[in-house]
Amino acid sequence: MGAIEVVDLAKAYGELRAVDGVGFEVAEGEFFGILGPNGAGKTTTLEIIEGLRRPDAGSVTVLGERPWPRNPALLPRMGVQLQASSFFERLTAREQIHTFAALYGVRPARGDDWLEHVGLVDKVDTRVADLSGGQMQRLSIACALVHDPEVVFLDEPTAALDPQARRNLWDLLSSLNDSGRTVVLTTHHMDEAEVLCDRVAIMDRGRVLQLDTPRRLIRSLDAPTRITVAAGQLDQGQAEALPGVERAHADADGLVLTTREPAVVLARLAGDGHLDGIAVAAGTLEDVFLAVTGREYRP
Amino acid sequence: MSAYVALSLAIIKGFLRDRASVFFALVFPLMFLVLFGGVMGDRAQSKVHLIEVGEVGLVDDLTGGAREAFEETFEIDRSPDLAAAVAAVRKGDADVAIEMRGDTLVAHYTQTDQVKAGITQGTLRAFVDGSNVAASGRPATYSFASEAVEDDSLRTIQFVTPGLLGWAIAMSASFGAAATLNGWRSSKLLRRLQLSPVPTTTVVAARVSVTVAIAFVQTLIFVGLGVAAFGLRLTGAWPAAVPLLLVGTLCFMSIGLLAGAVARTTEGAVNMANFIVLPMSFLSGSFFSLEGTPAWLQAVSWAMPLRWLNEGMLDVMVRGEPAAAILLPLGVLAAFAVAITLLAARLFQWETT
After folding, report:
1. Taking CB atoms and an 8 Å limit, are B6 and A102 in contact across chains?
2. Lowest mean pLDDT among B5-14, B67-76, B253-262
3. Counting CB atoms within 10 angstroms of each CB, which of A32, A81, B168, B231 has the fewest?
4. Residue B39 pLDDT greater than 80, yes or no
5. B188–A104: do the CB atoms touch at under 8 Å?
6. Given A52, A85, A108, which is nearest B194 (Cβ)?
7. Low pLDDT (below 70) residues in chain A
8. What gap in Å lies between CA B275 and CA B289, rounded to an integer?
9. What range does the domain containing B255 cover?
10. B20 touching A (Cβ < 8 Å)
């Protein structure tokens, strides 16, 4: 049995069908991502699974328990990080995590361990308002994990972070399921889901459109690979004449060759000595999103 | 550490580190206590400034005890110029100017300060009567002594302290509840706590405990300063004010919950609580006595929970009423607390958009 089972979930706010027939299963120890643009229904789905909202229809079990209505037997086994930074006002990082430790009946020392683990040792006496966005998210994750839960829910942990801080957080996030813990994460960053998640559910307009491993999703798309070579090595006509190249066009970086047989094209380019400044871009989840929704991805 | 203790500590640290909250809960009301109790209270006791124009035999001839009594009431200056003396009275530099017209003592005084005008008239008349008696050589048949009914003191501090204390507690309880409910909702901390194994009752108990503790600290400081610096004297049943303060705090927390539930932002919630509490304080006699105000105003004031809190405190703290005097105010405040909390719970929404 999966750690989380979601069947035919539906939730409407007036006319808006925020969640519309969502179903999936998350295995124990899996890193599961829910991916989609803002307003896709990710957070509502997550909040129903956590037990914060009652679904209009459908059922949810987490670790074999029903999260709604508030289930005190389940709560200590779950860790949650909500979208906003949910902290007590004007407390330091250490005071925050000690308070959360006490809420879960855990020794304060566990909190200190987690502060160290998330790299906040030199910020323990800093108040949350003075932490950077990335540090706040680290503290928030530490507070969610202080009681060593079996399942942890992270709602857009990297939202509002600059790209550098976002990548810094990936190391921490990817280690969260090392000890067999189940992780469910929502994000609107395609690259993040690709790097972190074992499986990804792509959501839009309250529905799950695709659900698979990131690799398989991209491969199933049969998306072309784009090979860029530095300008001046070969002209457009020559490039389009190469076997396997579907078309070629010039852009600011050089000449871009589009192909579904990258191995053939690369071998030929190597043989002709055209590898200078070469760049290869395979399909991404963004292409998958474009293919399944028929519209540009707008986070 | 239990969840209750940890939450209480977190809330109290958050309060103590917020200078604005501490200022409005403790310092700001104390400023009013010093202003009302100290400055204005002293003025009521100050001597009447009297200008003696020319020779006033009645005053000049006073001797012994009579002279002493007169100088206790009046601070005497002399001036030869009646017009200048009357001008000084008109401008407020002096309170009264006296002159003799034949056998008549004429006092020129101003009605601006009715208390001093009253003292001036009464005292001068008494001295004239006394002098008449002395001149006639017959002992007085009647004499008059006055004693205030309020614990031998009519001092301002007695009436100002409970009212200002009521206002201070109303502010800190309602602001605290409004800011907590609204702030914790918008930071999703309320949601976060809902997803922890701690029961809601524990969270509520921690917030209530901290607010009640702050209210008792306010009371200690207010009454302590009043007794030590301004001569406040508590009457017998004053410990009965403790349950009254407790229920009063709950009542104003419920008003804060209402503001916190309705307002969109935390600042808005605190402003709304202030918008309710400040006018209520005026209408409930926190800043000035409602004695002698129109009947409709009296009627309105009894619809205010703060009026009940203030009256209950006045009864047991300074009017010398027995402890049973708090029962009715206690019941009314508890009813307000329950009704307003239920209303707040109905109006509360998790999402503010």
Report:
1. yes
2. B67-76
3. B231
4. no
5. no
6. A52
7. 1, 296-299
8. 21
9. 3-41+153-347
10. no
